[in-house]
Prior knowledge:
Order of helices and strands: HHEHHEHHHHEHHE
Structural class: mainly alpha
Radius of gyration: 21 Å
CATH topology of the largest domain: Recoverin, domain 1
CATH architecture of the largest domain: Orthogonal Bundle
Strand content: under 5%
Shape: globular
Number of strands: 4
Strand order of the largest sheet: 1-2
Distance between the termini: 55 Å
Number of domains: 2
CATH class of the largest domain: Mainly Alpha
Amino acid sequence: xxxxxxxxxxxxxxxxxxxxxxxxxxxxxxxxxxxxxxxxxxxxxxxxxxxxxxxxxxxxxxxxxxxxxxxxxxxxxxxxxxxxxxxxxxxxxxxxxxxxxxxxxxxxxxxxxxxxxxxxxxxxxxxxxxxxxxxxxxxxxxxxxxxxxxxxxxxxxxxxxxxxxxxxxxxxxxxxxxxxxxxxxxxxxxxxxxxxxxxxxxxxxxxxxxxxxxxx
Length: 216
């Protein structure tokens, strides 16, 4: 019989509360920086919102402009906003903000973490949807970007720019190995692995019940 471990629950709740306090301190530091910047640029500070500042911080810290923050970029970039975390504090923050621990953060994860209420963070409701954002980014990285690059490599001068639908149709046809007219996620998984991009088992389980219709 499983028994309720109140001591463990209390320990987990206490650890989560500490991370939430860190998040609130980080948010205060970002707002202070944003208000200071607004004054320097002659902008009314009432026009500056927490989400504006959080987005600005993400873009400033994203050194390579990839649209994702590596842990290294985040650790290096936070001090410019007056945010100094110990090794344990940084690890705790990353563990909460990035549950899959894949080493990078997308914008939605960062904004959701910075804007969620304390209660949402305590209960994990804020994390809904962030995994699908990362999956879309993985698909784009593995399939859409290379397909677009390949198109322009072979396109003749004056060729009109293809639509996203044209590129997606080509991708689906390439990966539709059984010729069934639709792309299941096993075919997607294999196709992405050919580009050295992996879908985790958890991601695959969430997606396997759905199918992608072949664009007509």
